[in-house]
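Fig. S4 source data, part A: sequence.
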Amino acid sequence: MSELGLAVSCSVSAPNDGVPPNIEGLFDQIGDWEWLRLDSDVRGRIAFAIHQRLLARYLTSGMRVLEIGAGPGRFTIALAQLGCRVVVSDVSSVQLALNEEHVNAAGVADSIEDRVQLDVRDLSRFGDGSFDALVAYGGPLSYVFEDAAQALRECFRVTRAQGPVLASVMSLAGSGRYFVESFLPTIEVVGLDTFRAFLDDGDQRTLASVPGTHPCRLFTWDQVQDLVAQAGGEVLAGLASNWLSLGPDPILRQFEESEELWNTLLEWEERFCAEQGAIDGGTHILFAARAPAGREVVGAASVTEVVTGEARPANSRDANIT
């Protein structure tokens, strides 16, 4: 099976022969694959490193962090190693059990305040401003479809004013570029008009008739910026996950043979992933955002973006990593 069957990929191939009717069931079913995918090849290891660098840019020791869609714990461990106090959450009880197992094995269990099973669209168990920061890696916002703005609004609500919300979504253009070999086989199944409709909005439910299709929404960078504005927030940074690292795996593996070359490659990757022309070009889009100080998180009418210290209109399309 190709990545996500014949459809444009959200991530590496998961063992899902027949997609469960709900996202909780999907992540119950794929189990420890979420742990393995960021270490299964060089591309995954580079993506993990870039995600970690964004964490280190915005988070500091002692912060209380809510982790949404924590899965089996790779980023939970990274947060603990940064000195954060973490409330772990996931829609899947299976993923939460795996998270506890891996976190315990890493020796950082003391950094975990709690583990809760919840849906990102409803964080009502937490009061306003309960956390210093929130992390939603692994694409939780890609799995709530029409409710993505509601979900992100909840993320802003439970995070203190101007506290960072770090998240990732699946990338439409970048996934298409990397998995273009799936286009024609998918068109054979669904037809050209249906495939065009999918590329118009990135909703892979359009391709449900294709065996193995992953039910998620893929985004463009423009759509991510619109989403943040709709949720009443402002964009701090945006970058691709995987750019140079979408090159040939044998070549990338040679960089791993030298610590100096590996660190240099990561520096290049981070730099290029933040270029405006590259943000859409990875398999995922990473972004940092926040709820403005002293402003109720309700709508998008007066939202601004913060770009290298300057406030700009929300449709400026210029947000970048600083």
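Fig. S4 source data, part B ends here. The domain at 23-313 is CATH 3.40.50.150 (Rossmann fold).
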